Each structure stands twice: as structure tokens, then as C-alpha cells.
From TrEMBL:
Organism: Lysobacter korlensis
Protein's UniProt keywords contain Transmembrane helix: yes
Reactions mediated catalytically: 2 GTP = 3',3'-c-di-GMP + 2 diphosphate
Transmembrane segments: 12-31, 68-88, 100-117, 123-142, 154-177, 197-217
One Pfam family of this chain: GGDEF
Top-level taxon of origin: Bacteria
Organism placement in taxonomy: Bacteria, Pseudomonadati, Pseudomonadota, Gammaproteobacteria, Lysobacterales
Classification via PANTHER family: DIGUANYLATE CYCLASE DGCM-RELATED (PTHR45138:SF9), REGULATORY COMPONENTS OF SENSORY TRANSDUCTION SYSTEM (PTHR45138)
InterPro entries in the record: Diguanylate_Cyclase, GGDEF_dom, Nucleotide_cyclase, Rev_trsase/Diguanyl_cyclase
Span of domain GGDEF: 259-391
Matching NCBIfam families: GGDEF
UniProt protein name: diguanylate cyclase
Alphabetized CDD domains for the sequence: GGDEF
EC number: 2.7.7.65
Length: 409
């Protein structure tokens, strides 16, 4: 019955449930903040938002529902808290600060709530819920990217939850408009079971958003760790482990396209001398420069890894072994034909290359061993040259290409 609405005990439990939920949400944010330093700024906004929201709601629980200023304080705190959450979440999922100024808008709308106070109580409730619906909708809007193009299940869940949050305000507004009971100056105008449901949803929202943001932050942290583990710090190329992980899939895809997978081991010649003559830092700079030049001369679909100190492994897709040999020769020339400018120094660098085809019945490790044996041949043959493993067929055609490529330093 509508006359049973708004008993103080219902209001108390509703606000306590919602307030505790918001404070728990703030705690989740605090944990997330420690997990992901790069997300600190948006997480801070969410943290403060949930804190202010929680304080406002918990405060309302212990306030006489007919007293003016405490209710207004609770209403204003809820508005400012939600505005901060909207800004923080929007920032987090779109990876850039949202354009709208959350705080000035929140202060303006809180002013509107205060201005609405002299209206009849039900009208005050309607104005408050309408403003809050706008805010909740802006929360859903801020995270729309998470709904439309989610990068993870957690991000989609954040978007869905924000949309649900907006719906709960639409529902509250609906009840406030349809309310026909005694006029009391509080914010809820809905039957008791709905009030409980609203409070539980309200409490769960920040808690779930907090948990999901933590999940999101962890997923981003995981992706960053993965990136760090798969990228060589000095050269920016793949690490040996990352190439190992990708090699089989790459091989299967190249074979599926009917192409020839080839392996190329590239080793800088007399690299120790570069270190000894110009210092280790210059050696590092040469490694970076050689990596950059190789990347620039290889097709975008080639995988390049730093295989060892001054050794690189390239996975090449070619229409034929002969094309792979020609690509290897181009790479040798790219490295060896012009010296590298390292500061004021001009450092001549050459490389020896071992090429092997990776046939269907060969293990990756055996193909690498074949390329390594070919590299050894190139080194023994005088360096600054390409040598081709027997596995690369037809041998004659390849030998002809390779012979043309041989030069002595
Ligand atoms: N600056 C620098 N030097 C490195 C790095 N990793 C390995 N090296 C050095 O690379 C040198 C490799 O020397 P060697 O294996 O003798 O090979 P090399 O001098 O290139 O001779 P060949 O390969 O036979 O032509 C060693 O002196 C290592 O200390 C690195 O990350 N930075």
C-alpha cells in the first residue's frame, strides 16, 4: 500500500545498503589504483566519486527525512560523486580525459537541486530524480565505447552496468511522477519492495563497477606485461620467446596461403670490435640502428626477433625459396652498404646471413639449426654474405642467387 511507503526504517536500510555499496566500491578503486599506476588519474576520480557518493548516502540514512539541509547535502554529494565517477570511467575506457567538466556541471546541478527545494516535496523529488537520471545517462554515455566497441568482457560489463544504473534512475523517476501518497520531503517515492530492489541495485552498482574496473586494470596490466615480455628492450624487436610462441601459427598461415616459409639468421660481423673500439654504448646504438634498418627493408608481415646478443632471426614469407634468397641479399646490402651514423661517428657494419626453408615436415628447432649451419658457412666463407642451407630448393637456382650476393668485406 502506498500509505506504507517511506517508513523511516525502510529509508534507513535503503540508504545504508546503498551507502555501504558505494564505500565498498571506493575500496575496490583503492585496490585497483595500487594495481595499475598508469590508470591512477581516472581511478582517482572514480575513487573520490564513490567515496563522496557513499558518504552522502550513509549520511542520508541517519538523517530525519523531513529536515532540509542534511537531505540537500546528501543530494548534492550524490550528484558530485556520480559526476566524478562518470568522468573517471569515461576517461578509463576511452583512454583520454572526457571533454565535459564534471565538477562545474555537478555544482551547477546541485545548485538547481537547492533551488528546487521550495517546490512541493514531490516536485522536489521529481526534479532531483530527473537531474540524477541525466547524470546516470551521462555515466552510460561516458562509457559508451565500452558498450559499442569493448576491448574485453570486463569493459563490456562496465558499459552494461552503467546503462543499468541509468535505468534504475529512470525507474525511480517514473515512481516519483506516479506517486500519490502523503507528501514527505525525501528522495524516494516508490513501494517498499521496489525501494529495497533499488537500494540493492544501487549498492551493487559501485561494487560491481569497482570489481570490473579492477579486472580491466588487471587485464591492461597483463597486456602491458605481455608486451614487455615479447619486446626486446634495446631494439624494440620481438624477443626470442615471443618469436618461439608465434612461429608455429605463422608457419601454418604461410603454408595455408601456399607460400614458402623461410628462416633467416642475421649475425653482425666483428661486433666485438665495435664494442672494443667505440664502447658498449656505441655497440648498443649500432644494434638499434641495424634493427631499424632491417625493419625498414623487410615486408611488414616478416617477424623479426633479437635472437641473441648481435644475432637476429627473421621469419620470411616468400613465393619461392629464390625470392627468400633475394630478400636475404637485399637485407645484407641494406646493413652493409652504408655505414651507420652514431653521434659524430660513422661506423661501417656488415652482417652474415644464413637462410633455410622451413618445410612442413621440419621442426622449428631443426629449421633454425639449418639456418645456423648456413650462417656458420657464411662466416667461414669470409662474412658479409648470404649462405643458403641445403633444405632450400631448388639448390641450383639458390646457389646462383647466393653466389651473386657474395662479397668480401
Ligand atoms: N653493446 C652490446 N654488445 C653486446 C650485446 N650483446 C652481446 N654483445 C657483445 O657482442 C659481442 C659478440 O662477439 P662475438 O661472439 O665474438 O662475435 P663477433 O665479434 O661479432 O664476431 P663474429 O660474429 O665471428 O663476426 C660480444 O663482445 C658481446 O659482449 C649488447 O646487448 N650490447
Amino acid at each position: 500500500m502506498e500509505s506504507d511507503l517511506m517508513r523511516p526504517i525502510d529509508m534507513l536500510s535503503a540508504y545504508i545498503i546503498a551507502g555501504v555499496g558505494s564505500l565498498l566500491g571506493a575500496m575496490m578503486m583503492l585496490i585497483a589504483r595500487q594495481a595499475e599506476p598508469s590508470q591512477r588519474a581516472p581511478l582517482n576520480q572514480c575513487l573520490y566519486g564513490f567515496l563522496i557518493l557513499g558518504v552522502g548516502l550513509a549520511h542520508n540514512a541517519f538523517t530525519d527525512t523531513a529536515v532540509r539541509w542534511p537531505i540537500l547535502f546528501g543530494a548534492a554529494a550524490s550528484l558530485v560523486g556520480t559526476a566524478l565517477i562518470a568522468r573517471g570511467l569515461g576517461w578509463m575506457v576511452s583512454a583520454r580525459p572526457p571533454r565535459f567538466g564534471a565538477l562545474p556541471t555537478a555544482v551547477l546541478l546541485a545548485g538547481l537541486v537547492i533551488a528546487a527545494w521550495p517546490l512541493p516535496p514531490r516536485w522536489f523529488g521529481i526534479v532531483f530524480h530527473a537531474i540524477f537520471l541525466m547524470f546516470a545517462a551521462s555515466l552510460a554515455y561516458a562509457t559508451r565505447h565500452a558498450l559499442l566497441r569493448p576491448r574485453s568482457a570486463a569493459e563490456r560489463a562496465v558499459g552494461v552496468i552503467c546503462a543499468l544504473y541509468a535505468l534504475t534512475w529512470a525507474q525511480t523517476l517514473w515512481y516519483a511522477i506516479g506517486y500519490r501518497g502523503p507528501e514527505l520531503r525525501h528522495l524516494m517515492y516508490m513501494p517498499e519492495p521496489m525501494l529495497t530492489m533499488f537500494a540493492v541495485t544501487y549498492a551493487l552498482m559501485p561494487l560491481l563497477v569497482g570489481a570490473l574496473v579492477l579486472n580491466l586494470a588487471n587485464a591492461q596490466l597483463g597486456a602491458r606485461l605481455n608486451r614487455l615480455a615479447s619486446t626486446d628492450e634495446l631494439t624494440g624487436l620481438l624477443t626470442r620467446r615471443a618469436l618461439h610462441e608465434r612461429a608455429q601459427l605463422w608457419h601454418a598461415e604461410v603454408r595455408a596461403r601456399g607460400q614458402t616459409p623461410a628462416l633467416l639468421l642475421v649475425d653482425i660481423d666483428y661486433f666485438k670490435q665495435i664494442n672494443d673500439s667505440h664502447g658498449h654504448e656505441c655497440g648498443d646504438a649500432v644494434l638499434r640502428a641495424v634493427s631499424g634498418r632491417m625493419r625498414g627493408h623487410l615486408r611488414g608481415d616478416a617477424l623479426i626477433a633479437r635472437w641473441g646478443g648481435e644475432e637476429f632471426l627473421v621469419l620470411l614469407e616468400a613465393s619461392h625459396c629464390r625470392d627468400a634468397a633475394a630478400a636475404a641479399e637485399r637485407l645484407r646490402a641494406a646493413v652493409g652498404d652504408a655505414p651507420f651514423s652514431i653521434g659524430a661517428l660513422r661506423v661501417p657494419v656488415t652482417a652474415s646471413l644464413g637462410l633455410a626453408a622451413w618445410t612442413d615436415d621440419t621442426q622449428f628447432a631443426r629449421a633454425v639449426a639449418a639456418a645456423d649451419a648456413a650462417l656458420y658457412t657464411a662466416k667461414r666463407g669470409g662474412r658479409n654474405r648470404v649462405a643458403i642451407a641445403d633444405a632450400c630448393e631448388p639448390a641450383d637456382a639458390l646457389s646462383a642467387t647466393a653466389a651473386a650476393s657474395r662479397r668480401t668485406p
